[in-house]
Design goal:
This protein has helices at 32-35, 44-51, 53-66, 72-81, 91-98, 117-127, 129-136, and strands spanning 10-14, 17-24, 27-31, 103-106, 112-116. With 137 residues, the protein is an alpha+beta fold. The chain has one domain (10-136). A five-stranded antiparallel beta sheet has the order 1-2-3-5-4. Strand 2 (17-24) and strand 3 form a beta hairpin. Helix 3 (53-66) runs antiparallel to helix 4 and helix 6 runs antiparallel to helix 7. The longest helix has 14 residues, at 53-66.
């Protein structure tokens, strides 16, 4: 699934931050990387969010609902490890191992981590309730 700078990219401004939205397969994917521009911690916040057991459970349910190719067997292994001090999850690993479609990462000039709008709203809520409400509006 292509992400990043495509012909269908557009930008919205959320609390003074330009946030890129791409359209892939008629679905909006929002740049989590852009959402972090005014938050301390930068892209490490995405990994902190992914380390959370509730996040892994949310992502698993989203994929089960929306992705017919979701690898539920691999998901069970990740779910069992989530929340442990030694657990660490990257967006690329999630996509590759699970066959996820809701969360995508790409390196390079127009890269970053993008999430389906449902997932991006969940991430926005984790960052700040106020930010999430401005993102939705």
């Amino acid at each position: 699934m292509p992400i990043g700078n495509t012909k269908k990219s557009r930008s919205i401004v959320v609390q003074g931050i330009p946030v890129t939205i791409t359209n892939n397969h008629e679905q909006d994917y929002i740049s989590l990387t852009d959402m972090l521009k005014n938050f301390e911690g930068g892209s490490a916040l995405i990994e902190q969010w992914l380390k959370n057991k509730d996040t892994v459970l949310f992502l698993g349910v989203w994929e089960k609902i929306n992705n017919s190719c979701f690898n539920s067997l691999e998901f069970e292994g990740i779910k069992n490890e989530a929340g442990r001090n030694s657990f660490y999850l990257f967006a690329v690993k999630w996509s590759d191992v699970i066959g996820a479609i809701g969360l995508q990462a790409k390196a390079g000039r127009y890269g970053g981590t993008y999430a389906h709008k449902d997932i991006a709203f969940e991430f926005g809520s984790w960052l700040s309730s106020e930010f999430k409400l401005y993102l939705i509006k």
